[in-house]
Task: inverse folding
C-alpha cells in the first residue's frame, strides 16, 4: 500500500517507536509533510497499516494445568493437586507453513530438498546443523 521503500520506512518508524498521540504529532512535522506521503492524516495512515498482509491469525484455547501443590480444599488428604485454567495462544503450524510458502517475498529463498554444505572445496568435511 506504500509507494516505495522510503515511504514504508517513514511509516514503520512511528509504529515501532511512538505512542498513538506521538505518531499524530510526528505526522505534523514539516519534514514529514515535505515528503508528501500517500497518507495525509492519522485515519488514512492507520487504513494503510491495516491493509498490510496480516499473516496467520492467532488461536486460543482454554486448558487446565495441574500444578505440583496439593489442593487441600478439594481433597484434604493432599492427593489431588491444585489445577488452574489458563489460555494457550498459538499459531496453527500448517497455516504458518502455508503463509511462508505462499509469500512472494520468500519465493527465491525456498528450498524443497536437503542441501549438503561442505567446509572444504573438496567436499570432505560436511557441515551438519539443525537448519
Result:
Amino acid at each position: 500500500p506504500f509507494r516505495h521503500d522510503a515511504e514504508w520506512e517513514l511509516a514503520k518508524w512511528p509504529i515501532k517507536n511512538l505512542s498513538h498521540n506521538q505518531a499524530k504529532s510526528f505526522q505534523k512535522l514539516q519534514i514529514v509533510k515535505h515528503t508528501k506521503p500517500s497518507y495525509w492524516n492519522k485515519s488514512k495512515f492507520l487504513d494503510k497499516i491495516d491493509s498490510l498482509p496480516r499473516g496467520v491469525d492467532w488461536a486460543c484455547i482454554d486448558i487446565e494445568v495441574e500444578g505440583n501443590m496439593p489442593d487441600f480444599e478439594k481433597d484434604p488428604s493432599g492427593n489431588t493437586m491444585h489445577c488452574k485454567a489458563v489460555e494457550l495462544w498459538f499459531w496453527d503450524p500448517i497455516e504458518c507453513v502455508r503463509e511462508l510458502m505462499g509469500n512472494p517475498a520468500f519465493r527465491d529463498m525456498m528450498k524443497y530438498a536437503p542441501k549438503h554444505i561442505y567446509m572444504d572445496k573438496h567436499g570432505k568435511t560436511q557441515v551438519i546443523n539443525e537448519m
Summary: The helical segments are 5-17, 20-27, 30-35, 42-50, 93-102. DSSP finds five helices and four strands in the chain. Residues 56 and 96 are 6 Å apart (CA to CA). The first strand starts at residue 59 and ends at 70.
